[in-house]
Specification:
Elements (H helix, E strand, L loop, with lengths): L1 H23 L6 H8 L3 H7 L10 H14 L7 H19 L2 H13 L12 H15 L9 H21 L6 H14 L6
């Protein structure tokens, strides 16, 4: 029970912070705003985060929660490559509609300069666990090439997704991220489809 409450409290803080960052902007959002919006306490906030800057890396938590939600959907594709395309498109729709370019850019820049944990590369994240599962099952079913290791494909796919987001940030969001990814992701994944 304690672990679920811990996750709920931290999750409420993260969700409130990113909602406020999107609505008010990062600079105009205070720790007090986040505490009020999340209906938590100052003690709870500082138990999980050193300050507002520490929340930048928490975007990966929201992404992981979205992946978990998408994987529970009964209408999701079952074929491995189609499932990867579906997850990519669905998450990129969320990013384009709920994460400002400024915040996503800050996340990337914070990961580049941090000396500590790089959350986007954390192999224990739900994201990486799901990718390993999907690709491993795809290899077992003969849908994905087996002459690459699961780890090699996961690394390439994650790098491809980060590159799409990074370029979208660099170009100032001048195009639709999910639409562009919907065109490019099948081309990228074609290289990993098993030859029939």
């Amino acid at each position: 029970m304690g672990k679920k409450n811990t996750r709920n409290t931290k999750g409420r803080i993260v969700a409130a912070a990113w909602k406020l960052f999107y609505e008010q902007g990062y600079e105009d959002t205070t720790v007090e705003d986040i505490i009020f919006e999340s209906e938590t306490s100052k003690g709870s906030f500082y138990h999980y985060f050193d300050g507002k800057d520490a929340l930048l890396s928490s975007l990966s938590v929201l992404f992981d929660e979205k992946y978990e939600e998408l994987m529970r959907r009964e209408d999701r594709p079952t074929e491995s490559v189609a499932l990867l395309e579906y997850l990519n498109h669905s998450l990129f729709v969320v990013i384009e509609n709920t994460v400002s370019l400024d915040l996503l850019s800050r996340l990337f820049s914070s990961q580049l300069v941090t000396k500590g944990e790089k959350h986007l590369l954390d192999r224990n994240r739900t994201y990486f666990k799901l990718l390993r599962q999907i690709i491993s099952e795809g290899q077992t079913r003969g849908e994905i090439r087996a002459d690459f290791t699961v780890s090699e494909i996961v690394k390439a796919y994650a790098m491809f997704e980060r590159a799409l987001m990074y370029d979208w940030c660099l170009s100032g969001g001048e195009y639709s991220l999910p639409n562009y990814a919907q065109r490019m992701t099948p081309l990228f994944l074609q290289a990993f489809r098993a030859r029939k």
